[in-house]
Amino acid sequence: AYSTVLSHVGAGVLVRGSSEGALVGGSSDADQEGPVVKRQKRSGALFDAINCTFSNSHGPGVAAQGQAKSFLDRCILVANLDAGVLALTGAKVAMKSCTIMDNSKQGVAAESGASVTMEGCNFTANWMQGLATGSGARIQATKCRVVTSCLAGVASFGAKSSISLETCMVLGSMRSGVTAQEGGLVQMKNSMVRGSGAGGVLAVHSGSRVELDTCVVDSNRLRAIHQIHGGVVEVGSSQISDFMDDSCMHLARQW
C-alpha cells in the first residue's frame, strides 16, 4: 500500500498469519469490515506499508497476529480507537520513521509473544501508554521519542515482557515516564526520562526490573526513581535528579 488512507470498522488493517495464505485489510469475522486481499499460500502473512496513513479506525490502526510479519515505513497512525499498532500471538512488526499520535489506547502495544522493532519513530499524546508490552512480548526501540502520553510513557507488564530503549527520549508523561510491573523488564541505554507527572522510573512487584545505562532521569515530579513491592531499578553511569519545577515541566513538554 502506498500513499493510502485506510479507515474501517474494527482494525484499519488486520494481518493474520495462516497456512491458507495472507489476509490483509480487515478480517472475515462478522464484526469486522474492510477489504480482504488473498495472496499465494505461505506460512505467514507479509504486509508492507510505505508512506501510508491509518486513521479513525474503530480499533487499532494496524493489527498483526499469528505468524504475521509487517513493515511500516514513514507511516502515520492517528486517532484510532484502540492502539496505533497492536501485535498479538507471535506476530512480528518492524517500524521506521513513523508518527503515532492521539490514539485512544497505546501508541504501540505487543502481547502474547509478539515482537515489535522500531527506529526513528515519534509518539505524541496517546491516551494510554506510548509503548506497552504484555506477558511474553517484546519491543525494541532505537532513536525514538515518546512525548506527553496520558499514562506512563513506556510500560512493561508481566513475566517475560520486555522493552529495550536505546538513544530514546521519554518526555512529559502524565504519570510515570517508564515503568515495569508484574515481572516486566525495561532496559534503557543512552536515553532520557524527563518531565513526568508522577515519577521518572517506576518498578513495581517482585521480579519487575528497570535497568539504566548512561541515562538521564531528571525534572520529574515526585521522585526520579520508585522501587515498590520488591521491584528493582538498577542504575549504572547515569544522571539522576529528583528536582522538578513548573518551568522544567513546561520545557519538557515542548520537546
Can you characterise this structure?
- The structure is a single chain.
- This protein starts with a strand and ends with a helix.
- It is mainly β and 255 residues long.
- Helices cover 4% and strands 43% of the residues.
- The protein has one helix at 246-254; strands at residues 5-6, 13-16, 23-24, 37-38, 46-50, 53-55, 62-65, 69-73, 76-78, 85-87, 92-96, 99-101, 108-110, 115-119, 122-124, 131-133, 138-142, 145-147, 154-157, 162-166, 169-171, 178-181, 185-189, 192-194, 201-204, 209-213, 216-218, 225-228, 232-236, 239-240.
- The radius of gyration is 18 Å and the shape is globular.
- The strands form 4 sheets. Strands 1-6-9-12-15-18-21-24-27-30 form a 10-stranded parallel β-sheet. Strands 2-7-10-13-16-19-22-25-28 form a 9-stranded parallel β-sheet, with no helix packed on it.
- The longest helix has 9 residues, at 246-254.
- The protein contains 1 helix and 30 strands.
A few lines on this structure:
4% of the residues lie in helices and 43% in strands. It has 255 residues and is mainly beta. The longest helix is centred in the last third of the chain and has 9 residues, at 246-254.
Mean pLDDT: 84
Placed side by side, the strands forming the largest sheet appear as 1-6-9-12-15-18-21-24-27-30
Radius of gyration: 18 Å
* Beta-strand percentage range: 35-45%
Measured as a percent range, the helix fraction is under 10%
Structural class: mainly beta
Q: Outline, from the CA principal axes? A: globular
